[in-house]
Amino acid sequence: MSQADLTMEGHSTAPMVGPIFSIPTKKFAMWLFIIADTMTFAACLVAYGFLRNGTPDWPRPFHSITNVAVMTLILLTSSLTMLVGLRAARAGDKARAFRWTMITAVLGIVFALLHIREWLGLINEGMTMFKNPWGTGLFGASFFSITGLHLTHVTCGVVALIAVGVRYKGGRYNADDIEVLGLYWHFVDLVWMFVVPLVYLLNLSH
Amino acid sequence: MAATETHKNSEIGKDIIVYVCLLALAGVQFLIAYQNIDIGQKFTRMLTVACIEAGIAVLFFMHLWSEKRAFLIFVIVFTISVLLGMQYGWTDSNRMLVGAPFSKVQ
Predict the structure, then answer these.
(1) Angle A175-195/A25-54 helices, nearest 10 degrees?
(2) Which fold does the domain A24-203 belong to in CATH?
């Protein structure tokens, strides 16, 4: 006798109980994605630390912290603007929520442009994936992999912010969707908090 | 209506406090970068500050603190156990640095 038969005969309780953690499915899915993505970034950073620790001539090419400090400020501020947008969405103020979501997207674009400018600066100094003028060639590979993975996340986040913002304004998405996207955006910010000290600040030349 | 507005302002005020805390902690990381200490100490201090920053961001910006306790525990236990599991390679990294045993065989 199948489970369906048992249920139909009324010998069983309802086949499904409530959500396990009493949170919406989309939000739970985003949390699971974030946990999985944490593992990806953690694996990259641990591998980077492994190489950094095990390589005596590790390069220290960064002369100034200005650029990375400005990038950090922009990304942290974008997290705040995302929260303001979410609060507005929760309050039902669509225009305000859309405006702050777009401000967050613009800050993301500025961050990405600063990142690309920094990459170009390093490339002009002779750094590639496999060699650089300062020491082991592993530095370029690990630097571009980690910051590139993060930049990809920022770019995807910007696209998602614009798409979700527009659809929210058009009435196809609601405040829950803004919240789910906000989780992703804060995660991107959170990862940057680890990338900055490990990849930039530990490689300052002074 | 006025009560709702006051509640909304207090929530945004809380967000701004968390934002300022995160900025200050990021500033601390930059200060550590210019301290005259060895790389191991720098690494430990910066990573500690980064973990505090991440904790604050997850709990308050991502609102994990206001989720069900079971979910909070699930996320913390699951994430920390896997992150700890990744640390098995450090002894091998130190071996690479010292060059043993392969350099002796050569």
Answers:
(1) 10
(2) Four Helix Bundle (Hemerythrin (Met), subunit A) (1.20.120)
